[in-house]
Design goal:
Blueprint lengths: L1 H6 L5 H5 L7 H12 L8 H4 L2 H10 L8 H10 L8 H13 L12 E2 L2 E2 H20 L15 H28 L3 H22 L14 H26 L4 H28 L14 H10 L1 H11 L8 H9 L3 H20 L6 H14 L3
Antiparallel strand pairs: 1-2
Helix pairs in contact: 3-7, 3-17, 5-9, 7-8, 7-11, 7-17, 8-9, 8-11, 10-11, 11-12, 12-16, 12-17, 13-14, 13-16, 16-17
Length: about 375
């Protein structure tokens, strides 16, 4: 079955055949930024340097010395070594340039800079602000599960308040900018993406409070549905919205949606696979028990046998032996199946790109697929 899905959509091979091996992610991002006209790391600078958010940043300093996750998020804004934070906005700009101007309406082409409409650049900023807002909101901790080593209770409560307020501020700015685009369909698309994000995060956290819940009882199909909501919907619908802003056809909008969806799915699968395929001297690497390889392992092995393996890997004090679990998953069929699924989504993303005319922007989008999914 898994071999079959990887072989579907043979049309992508022509596009992939001439591509070089995937470069380092930072190099791909740097080259792509030159194509769209400016570094996307500055896209949301106006918001991030506003008086309101500057005041929030000063307040966050009070969390130094604690283990509140908002600190890690804040550090990511300042030093993002893997250039992951701005990836979504960059893809929106690239696919806008790859599609070019529409022949349906030539009246507003004077607003183009480097082959991208000003409204599409605004959309890229909006996409980044929404993504950043949800990253900040994810930094809220469960006060009831805190340990003494995490930091004083009042500081952790303060951190939660700052995570809520700063995330809401970013989301409010994004919604204001979205309304200024004055395009009803784009507002509907991005609003539905925000709803998808909320639903996806709810699914991720709905079982965390259940007693003795170690892993979700789901199959790979349900996993893909949930990952689309929490990781892919925003990028997919932003790419589609970029085509709508340029008055492109419904077919082009769908191809842009398919690229965003499958590229981000491939990226998520590649990320989940790293603890199982990356050579590391660290045997205590922690991974999610709801990652793709773990879900596939449970599907192949059976729920009861998987729970038994997890409990056998738990030592005293509920400390998990992740090396033992990693070896158990690696010994089965789950890792090869996840690799094939990753390649399948990468191939689907490349197939969608073939509908776009050849250009530097299209080549950069293909390189992003390679870097995000580890394709060779």
């Amino acid at each position: 079955m898994w071999g079959a899905v990887a072989r579907r959509g043979g049309g992508w091979r022509g596009l992939a055949a001439g591509r070089p091996p995937p470069a380092a992610w930072s190099q791909v991002v740097s080259e792509a930024e030159k194509i769209v006209g400016y570094p996307t790391s500055f896209m949301s600078l106006r918001c991030l340097l506003s008086d309101e958010l500057s005041n929030i940043a000063m307040q966050v300093r009070k969390l130094v010395g604690t283990r509140h996750p908002l600190l890690d998020t804040a550090r990511g804004f300042v030093y993002d070594s893997r250039n992951n934070l701005q990836m979504r906005g960059l893809v929106v700009l690239l696919i806008s340039k790859a599609a070019g101007p529409s022949t349906a309406d030539l009246s507003f082409q004077h607003n183009m800079v480097s082959g991208i409409y000003s409204s599409q650049r605004s959309l890229a900023e909006i996409t980044e602000l929404i993504h950043t807002a949800f990253l900040v909101h994810r930094g809220i901790v469960n006060i009831g599960e805190l340990k003494s080593c995490d930091g004083p209770l009042k500081d952790m409560q303060f951190g939660n308040k700052m995570a809520v307020l700063s995330g809401d501020f970013l989301l409010a700015n994004a919604c204001t900018s979205l309304a200024q685009l004055q395009n009803t369909k784009v507002v509907e698309l991005i609003s539905s993406a925000i709803g998808d994000l909320v639903q996806g995060i709810y699914y991720e956290n709905s079982r965390l409070s259940e007693e003795n819940c170690l892993t979700d009882d789901i199959g790979i199909s349900t996993w893909k549905e949930q990952v689309f909501l929490s990781h892919s919907a925003l990028l997919a619908k932003s790419c589609q919205a970029a085509m709508e802003l340029a008055k492109h056809s419904a077919e082009m909008q769908d191809m842009a949606f398919q690229y965003g969806k499958h590229m981000s799915m491939s990226h998520k699968l590649h990320s989940d696979l790293q603890p199982f395929v990356k050579e590391s001297s660290n045997d205590t690497v922690v991974f999610s028990l709801n990652s793709a390889p773990a879900v596939l392992h449970q599907e192949f092995l059976g729920r009861e046998a998987w729970i038994k393996q997890i409990k056998e890997a738990q030592g005293k004090g509920s400390i998990m032996d992740y090396k033992k679990l990693r070896d158990a998953i690696g010994a089965g069929r789950a890792v090869p199946a996840a690799l094939e699924l990753c390649r399948h989504h990468g191939a689907r993303a490349l197939a969608a790109l073939e509908r776009f005319p050849p250009s530097e922007a299209r080549a950069a989008l293909a390189n992003i697929v390679g870097a995000a999914s580890g394709r060779s």
